[in-house]
Write a structure and sequence with these properties.
Pfam families: DUF742. InterPro entries: DUF742. The structure is a single chain. With 120 residues, the protein is mainly α. The chain has a three-stranded antiparallel beta sheet with strand order 2-1-3. Helix 3 crosses helix 4. The N and C termini lie far apart (57 Å).
Length: 120
């Protein structure tokens, strides 16, 4: 069994709650960012520290989705989305294509699905 005091030896003391990382924010203010959006690290002059630095490090070699970043860092999805939004605003990350379309749903696809359901 591990010593019950070992959690004090973690770099953050094991006491930082995910909502504290984003100062209680739940929105990014970015319409172009979704959990499936792919982001990749830009080449920041000064790498950010803390969780921000970990995200930039993950995205340095290949694009990752917000959901993948959350899974790698064991963070709630909403917290990862807010952190990624901050990094995008600062220019430390860049979006790889736009996964969200302002045009709305594809009406041809929706019509085909509706016809398929009606045939059932």
């Amino acid at each position: 069994m591990t010593d019950p005091q070992t959690w004090f030896e973690q770099p953050d003391g094991g006491l930082v709650r995910p909502f504290a990382l984003v100062r209680g924010r739940t929105e990014t203010g970015r319409r172009d960012l979704d959990v499936i959006s792919l982001v990749q690290a830009a080449q920041p002059e000064t790498p950010p520290g803390g969780e921000y630095g970990r995200i930039v490090g993950l995205c340095r070699w290949q694009p990752l989705s917000v959901a993948e970043i959350a899974a790698h860092l064991d963070l709630p999805l909403l917290v990862a989305k807010v952190l990624v939004g901050d990094l995008l605003d600062e220019g430390d990350l860049v979006l790889c294509g736009n996964s969200i379309s302002d045009a709305g749903p594809d009406m041809v696809l929706l019509q085909a699905v509706l016809e398929g359901v009606r045939r059932l």
